[in-house]
Specification:
Blueprint (H helix, E strand, L loop, with lengths): L9 H30 L3 H20 L1 H13 L2 H17 L3 H25 L21 H17 L5 H24 L5 H25 L3 H13 L22 H5 L4
Helix pairs in contact: 1-8, 3-7, 4-5, 4-6, 5-6, 5-8, 5-9, 6-7, 6-8
Length: 267
């Protein structure tokens, strides 16, 4: 989520608040629709999930080295890793005095974690089951915790660097974040521990959490996020040291200076 710049007019701030709320409501509505289709076992979605996961499982079973590499990627990008990254970001922001921004980051991690398990228990969907699984995971399947945690973390980190980089830097940050989220989500289906719809649901739930947390903090402390963004920019900007050079005093003479005097003494 892009953080609000408090130098903009109040009407612009309200529009951005409305945008955050719209993102939250839109993602929540799509998540609810997807959950209804999953619990109702809507045949087209059920068939798509079954065919997709079946083909990936067959490939993973026949290519063990490839499967081990995918498992490594999945482990590295797991929820624990993502929450550690958010914890480190929140601690750093707290150290430099950006307390509201640090709270925003911490709230994204905590609310995301709580919402993930609340939704999993509410839907209580079974994971894919195979006679010869290539990977194991516990708990309900819907939504994917890996997909949700990676989407929240990448969006938060992009938001933190958004006003620190130029347009090219923003494009690169968004590209890296999108590639990370897509890769982690894909590994969960490739390993046969999540249905594709679980991963999509994780992304939608992440969007709802991001929008809700941002909107609530803006309503609670209007403009505080923007002030902390400016504080971070000021604390991390390059410092330019001024060097004062004493003026050179030219010796005064009664007559014109010869060439040797202009060049100074020979050492």
């Amino acid at each position: 989520m892009h953080l609000t710049n408090s130098t903009t007019p109040v009407t612009v701030r309200h529009r951005r608040l409305l945008r955050d709320a719209s993102v939250a409501l839109g993602c929540a509505a799509l998540f609810g629709l997807l959950a209804m289709l999953v619990t109702g076992r809507w045949y087209p979605l059920h068939q798509f999930d079954q065919e997709w996961i079946g083909e990936l499982h067959t490939y993973a079973r026949e290519h063990r080295i490839w499967t081990a590499a995918v498992q490594t990627l999945s482990d590295i990008g797991g929820p624990v890793t993502m929450r550690i990254l958010l914890g480190l970001a929140a601690a750093w922001l707290l150290l430099i005095g950006a307390r509201v921004l640090a709270g925003w980051v911490a709230a994204q991690a905590l609310v995301g974690w709580g919402a993930q398990w609340a939704l999993k228990l509410a839907v209580d969907r079974q994971r894919p089951a195979f006679a010869d699984p290539v990977s194991h995971a516990g708990g309900p399947a819907f939504p994917s915790g890996h997909a949700m945690a990676s989407a929240i973390t990448c969006a938060v980190l992009v938001g933190l660097v958004w006003y620190r980089v130029d347009r090219r830097g923003r494009t690169a940050a968004c590209a890296v974040a999108a590639a990370t989220v897509l890769t982690i989500g894909w590994t969960r289906t490739a390993l046969g521990v999540h249905w594709p719809s679980d991963v999509v649901a994780g992304w939608l739930a992440a969007g709802a959490v991001l929008g809700v947390v941002t909107a609530v903090i803006e309503l609670w402390r209007p403009g505080a996020l923007a002030r902390d963004v400016r504080r971070v920019n000021w604390r991390t900007r390059p410092r330019v040291q001024r060097v004062i050079v004493a003026p050179v005093r030219v010796p005064q003479t009664d007559g014109p200076l010869d060439e040797g005097e202009l060049d100074g003494p020979v050492r």
